[in-house]
Amino acid sequence: MQARGLLAGGFLFLTLGGALQAGVPARLEGPVQVLKAVGPEGKGNAEASAAWKQVASAPLPVLPGLLEAMDGANDYALNWLRSAVESVEERGRKSGGKIPVAAVEEFLRDTRHHPRARRLAYEILQRAEPERARRLLPGFVKDPANELRRDAVQLLVVAAGEKVTGDRAAAVAGYREALGHAREADQIDDLAKKLGELKEKVDLQKVFGWVTRWKMVGPFDNTGGAGFSKAFPPEEKLDVAAEMDGKSGKVRWVDFESKDDYGLIDFNKPFSDLKEVTGYAMAEFWSDTARPVQLRLGCKNGWKVWVNGKLLFGRDEYHRNMEIDQYRLATELKPGRNVLLVKCCQNEQKEDWTKEWEFQLRLTDEQGTPIVSTK
Amino acid sequence: MIPKIESAGPIPFFAKTMKTHPIVAAVLLALAGGLSNQAADWTQFRGPGGDGIAPDTRLPTSLDAGAVAWSVNLPGRGISSPVIVGKRVFVTASSGARQDRLHVLCFNLADGVLLWERQFWATGRTQTHEKISAATPSPASDGQRIYAIFSSNDCAALDLDGNLLWFRGLGRDYPNASNSLGMSSSLVVADGVVVAQVENDSESFTAGLDAKTGLNRWKLDRPKKANWTSPVVMKGTDGKPVLALQSSKGVTGVEPATGKVLWNYDQGASTVPSVTVAGGRLYVPSQGLTVLEPTSDGQAPKQVWRAAQLRPGTPSPVVVGDRVFTLNDGGILSCADVADGKRLWQLRLKGPFSSTPVIASGVLYCVNEKGLIQVVDPAKVTDPAKPESAVTSEFDLGQTIVGTPSIAAGSLFVRSDGKLWRIGRDSAL
Predict the structure, then answer these.
(1) Tens digits of per-residue pLDDT, B134-147?
(2) When you count CB atoms within 10 A of the terminal residue's CB, does the N or C end of chain A come out lower?
(3) Does the interface predicted TM-score (ipTM) exceed 0.90?
(4) Which of the four CATH numbers 3.40.50.2300, 3.40.50.10070, 3.30.70.360, 2.60.120.380 does domain A208-371 have?
């Protein structure tokens, strides 16, 4: 299984033309590149430790250049660079130095920069000139940096909340506007609840963009957890007309559509409450173009996911916990018909809290904006 | 005995040039301040011995608001224990909607002023049970560096001034190494190796990371089963350190420098409370409480006794002199004889409990989840039928406390999701 790097996060942000625009002094270019060269399993750590001290001793005017150096950095390197930025800022503040706020703000405003670097720039600005940062915040409501966007959305939530008692219509409009911009599940849930209290219905299936129409087949065996590693017929050849040998007889694909607000695809519904079994769910997903997406899955059973026959990831953990967007897997859609296949394994546990044999799945962009099938 | 003195900062000029008696040198260094006295430092979860005992510190046995030297707000959640090295207090925390901002904070021991803070972005999964957070495992120190690990299995090493020495994203390197309820195993350091017990239902392992570079010295496959216990370091029969790794299968003795498995106890163990080492014996939460004594022949440790009625809850067992104590989640504190496990008395404390008691001068400091500190002095129990006399003081912090406190400098250090307290002052002794 190609596991490494599939959990979406870093590695996705491309450099801005490959050049440091604000730049760092020539003497720091080498050390910065050493920090950006760190990788998995501690690769480059020894060299980075020495380079870090050089970078972290830079003067305050270098801050924007260091922030810019985060463009294109992998997740390990981002942490090396972040801590160097913190050290520069902390030492500068303690010595009474002046944060280059104009340059930091300019960096922050440029949405081509790494979202995490921009959030860090915002926090540096907040500490240096809180009012300046506060004035900028409402403008981030559509921002690609989720932490900035979240805080801006929260301003809308608070503003709408203040209107609830005097102007219900304005409060509803405010909450609706916030909901339109919210991308994180807890914020969406909170807004749905607030609107519900105002007797306003929210189509959560649509807001989250769940994939709700599937074909399902099962049960196959999962005695002793062995089914997780065993390739049953749907993994060998995906034929929705086929009849297959299941755990206790012949099995065929059946249609299933979730009506659940949270898009739960519940194997217990077509197949009843079973234990030590494996099920598969298949969905067609149509796209106008080739595009990168995040496949976001929630599941508390053992699972594997394939897109167009390619295994993205799998995990054999049972009944620990489930949440929306629990796993974020980077993948690509091709133009036209795409096929999603989910394997979902149920184990032997008998407690009430181990009945669930289900998952929820949606496709989004990197910010969490739902991408829905065009057919 | 002269405590080992190690520098926690720049070496004073006289230390570099002095040619004097070692005792005088030690005193001079200690007077210089900001230095680590490892005997008095609290370097890891449950203290330097991993047994919850402060080796040379007394605390007030009567606590009230006047005993609070200082308290500070924390920027994020956490139940990890504070680590105290020299004149500095190190705490980890996590923040953000997804708990993916990982903080390492350093406070001045004397007044709680923040000396420095470093943040990291989690590279692994941060999902946890709501009761805990990404900052659940405790950091550890070897007196020169602070090593911090989080539920996301991100691990960073910093010097005591906050300079980053290395960073590992173990949750990114090994992407199925996670637990959807959260990871909680704390770090230990032995023989120049930082030991990260990353055990879970899927990609389960324990890694020995080089303390200087963070690179894998060894990586040991471990039982595929969620495990929230923490490793302890004990002295082997040959005097060398041995790592005791607990899991659902039992306890495994491992050579910390190489990862070589030395012995196995295979009769199962809890995956929540951790083994405690005292007097060369292992007090294992296994089928109640099982006491083991390692042998020198490489065979499984010999069972000394087993007591089914001593069943620790989330808190780990503690041993004070010739008494062993277990505490269940509801607050029943059981006291037994270390010789044979015979229960001597039981005391109902005000629960519920998650944190392990810590001990100074034979007195237990028990903090329940409601933030109530109950001071228990077992020496006060004269009648086993009336153990209530052991509770000498109660002090309510008024916040949820799930993490285990730390002890140093005549003080108890307690943290909640949002606050860190130093309770006690040198002058109070």
Answers:
(1) 999 999 999 999 99
(2) C
(3) yes
(4) 2.60.120.380
Answer whether B172 sits within 8 Å of A9, measured CB to CB. yes
pLDDT in tens, B387-417: 999 999 999 999 999 999 999 999 999 999 9
Give the count of Cβ contacts less than 8 A between chain A and B: 118
For Cα atoms A252, A254, A259, give the angle at the middle one, nearest 5 degrees.
Answer: 160
Is A66 in CB contact (< 8 Å) with chain B?
no
Please say if the pLDDT value at position B427 is more than 90: no
- B59's CB contacts (< 8 A; 6+ apart) are B360, B361, B363, B365, B407, B410, B411, B412, B424
From chain A, the residues in CB contact with B228 under 8 A are none
CB contacts of A52 in chain B (<8 Å) are 163-164
| B75 in contact with A, Cβ within 8 Å | no
Place of tokens 């029943």: B332
**The pLDDT of residue B298:** 76
Domain boundaries, chain A: 26-140, 150-202, 208-371
Q: What is the predicted pLDDT for the residue at B297?
A: 75
For A:142-181, CB contacts with B below 8 A are 147, 150
User: What is the rounded average pLDDT of the residues A63-70?
Assistant: 97
Q: For chain B, say whether A197 makes contact (Cβ under 8 Å).
A: no
Residue with tokens 């350091």: B189
Q: In which band, very low, low, confident or very high, does the pLDDT at B36 lie, cut at 50, 70 and 90? A: low
Q: Rounded to whole angstroms, how far apart are CA atoms B410 and A150?
A: 44
One-letter amino acid for residue A162 of the chain: E
Please work out, in degrees rounded to the nearest 5, the angle formed at the alpha carbon of residue B349 by the alpha carbons of B345 and B352.
130
Q: What is the pLDDT of residue B37?
A: 53
Please state the φ and ψ torsions of residue A73, each to the nearest 5 degrees.
Answer: -75, 145
Q: Do A184 and B226 touch (CB under 8 A)?
A: no
- The residue among A148, A158, A129 whose CA lies nearest residue B96 is A148
| CA gap A50, A42 in Å, rounded | 14
Judged by CB atoms closer than 8 Å, whether chains meet at B169 and A76 is answered as: yes
pLDDT in tens, A346-368: 999 999 999 999 999 999 999 99
- DSSP sequence for A20-82: -SS---HHHHHHHHHHHT--GGGTTHHHHHHHHHHHHT--GGGHHHHHHTTTT--HHHHHHHH
CA-to-CA dists, residue A106 to A52, A70, A133, B282, angstroms? 25, 15, 12, 60
Contact B119 A86 (CB under 8 A): yes
Question: Which of B166, B176, B226 has its CB closest to that of A49?
Answer: B166
Residues 6+ apart with CB under 8 A from A309: A238, A339, A341
Domains detected in chain B = 1-37 (no CATH), 38-428 (2.130.10.10)
DSSP B158: E
Quick check: B426 pLDDT over 80?
no
Our separate counts of H helices and E strands in chain B read 3, 35
Per residue in B87-124, pLDDT tens? 999 999 999 999 999 999 999 999 999 999 999 999 99
Residue A139: helix, strand or coil by DSSP? Answer: helix
| Residue from B180, B183, B194, B202 whose CB has the most chain A CBs within 10 Å, to mutate | B180
Higher pLDDT, B207 or A10: B207
Question: End-to-end CA distance of chain B, in Å?
Answer: 21
Q: Which residues between 87 and 116 in chain A have a beta carbon less than 8 angstroms from any beta carbon of chain B?
A: 87, 90, 116
Residue A266 vs residues A257, A326, B55: alpha-carbon distances, Å: 10, 17, 56
How does residue B30 score in pLDDT terms, banded at 50, 70 and 90?
very low
Best of B100, B123, B183 to disrupt the A interface by mutation (most A CBs within 10 Å)?
B123
pLDDT of B20 higher than 70: no
